[in-house]
Predict the 3D structure of the following.
Amino acid sequence: MSQTETNGTATSGTPTSRTIRKSGTGAEDEVVVRLPMPSDGPLDPPAEWERLRERCPVATVELPSGDRAKFVSRYDDVRALLSDPRFARPGVGDDSARLSADGSGGVAADASPEYALAIPETGEPHLRWRRQVGRYFTAKRMAALRPGMARIAESLLDEMIERGQPADLKAALGFPLPVYVICDLLGAPADDRDRFSHWSDAFLNVSRFSKEETGAAFTEFTRYMADLVAAKRAEPGEDLLSMLIVESAALPEAERLTDAELLATGMGLLVAGHETTANMIGKMAALLLADRSRWERLLADPSLVRTAVEEVLRFDANLSGFGMRRYLSEDVDLDGELLPGGTTVFCGMSSANRDERVFTGADEMDLTRSPNPHLTFGAGPHSCLGQALARTELQVVLEVLLRKLPTLELAVPADELRKVEGLLVGGLREVPVRW
């Protein structure tokens, strides 16, 4: 790993890295970067990314817990790690780096035994689970959902317009739409959406909740999903959980999904299906409205919606303050550096998406960019199962917004938008708009 001499500081005065002397070795100083890295504005990438890609593509990072890990910032390295079937998210019982200092991290943030989920992470068991669940998330099936999504989006916007301006687009549209969609897919009542929101935040907690609050939310969420799985087993419907129960029952016993796996699948899909998409809807609107020429370009040519959505996904600098974790179960040579087995690596997908080695004009938003091989949904055997659903929702939302609210604009300057803090996912707390 090449060494750098930078000791960057954000405009807020928060240090982005610190230099630590390797005592007694005589070696040059090592830069240790704190995660999450700050940025100048809510839509801006951390300046540290470019420095790391150029000078230190495999960097040492310090987590909120004080644990150390590695951060990979270049596209080819990130893609290689994410595509390698040997490596998955840290699991219970390994010695992976912790995100939260006091054990308060949620299921997605820390592999704590009390929050263990039954979804297999590697090998044939993972492939078996992925084959069964993935059959539901085909592009064809998601396309069939488009008319219903559009009707929900139009109804939510009508309600927002009736309440008057300014309005919070995230609260009015970004949050409720994905909840309605994922609840319909899972066969869960959308009336429980406020509870889902709290449980999801706890699931993704890094520092927002205490250990006791996270544990209580996990217990409630688990009990709720166990009851839902039991109800679907007793009386299957047309939803995903029912389909998995019925189809799994027809398989040889060794290949069937257990109740624990069904429960974990429901919890994971409920969180991923609404939390990440709700945040992305808000960020998409903010990115396209922050520079009015982008919005005007789409109004003039709505056929660009699909490539615009892909470019928003690539350009988003606030996907996660940490990146996708991988636990190295064996030694790996990455970019000329030997990473020993037992290392926790954070794959900086958003940094990789800004890599000039792959994307011409990477720091510019090009709504016509094609091909656009961004890594927002990951890569390889652990890539996002619901990416066809997320893409469909984002396209539908953008189409409806352009059609119903062509005069839409941000109600505050873009640099006054406030970021979501304390969670594993990145987003904006609200997206104030007027029209």
